[in-house]
Q: What sequence folds into this?
């Protein structure tokens, strides 16, 4: 069974600061839970375009397989 | 009929689910969310999917991009197979660090797709006279 340790920290200038007694070795994988935060999260995608339109030829696709069932 | 994504986009947006495959290893993953974006020149796959499939970045400096708000960025390309609506499209794809990819016109122009905004769904248009 994996052990779980929890610490309370604060975000300062975009970095999470942990309490002094939290001695975590480098490369420790951590997960951040944020209580009481407005969870509304929407993506904004800004329709990227190539600055050099001549590069569009690099992205021509080859249709290599077709199946009779075209449904998802 | 695939539904719009109402949880990640406001207003809701048409999102397709595609499969990606490494052309060399043939390893594949499915159910990758991709925004249907006719304003995007190119198709972008999520970085996590590219990493999972170990898609090798193509050499070169990458591609300079401009968004409609005027912001600029660079993107690297990988070679992959995309399985979508019964076709496998092999070629070069850009990579972006996001949970949702973008289906741009390099892929969308292979299909006839009907967007039902009021119904919050989309589907492949199958009127044979228009194929």
A:
């Amino acid at each position: 069974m994996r052990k779980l340790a929890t610490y309370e920290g604060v975000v300062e200038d975009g970095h999470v600061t942990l309490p002094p007694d939290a001695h975590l070795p480098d490369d420790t994988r951590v997960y951040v839970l944020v209580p009481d935060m407005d969870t509304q999260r929407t993506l904004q995608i800004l329709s990227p375009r190539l600055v050099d339109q001549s590069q569009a030829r690099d992205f021509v696709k080859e249709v290599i397989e077709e199946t009779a069932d075209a449904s998802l | 009929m695939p539904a719009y994504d109402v949880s990640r986009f406001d207003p809701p947006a048409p999102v397709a689910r595609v499969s990606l495959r490494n052309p060399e290893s043939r390893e594949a993953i499915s159910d990758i969310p991709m925004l249907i974006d006719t304003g995007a020149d190119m198709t972008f796959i999520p970085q996590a999917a590219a990493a999972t499939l170990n898609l090798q970045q193509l050499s070169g400096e990458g591609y300079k991009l401009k968004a409609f708000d005027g912001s600029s960025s660079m993107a690297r390309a990988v070679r992959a197979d995309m399985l979508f609506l019964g076709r496998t499209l092999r070629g070069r794809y850009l990579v972006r660090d996001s949970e949702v990819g973008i289906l741009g016109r390099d892929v969308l122009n292979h299909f006839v797709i009907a967007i039902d905004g009021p119904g919050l769904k989309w589907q492949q248009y199958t009127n044979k006279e228009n194929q």
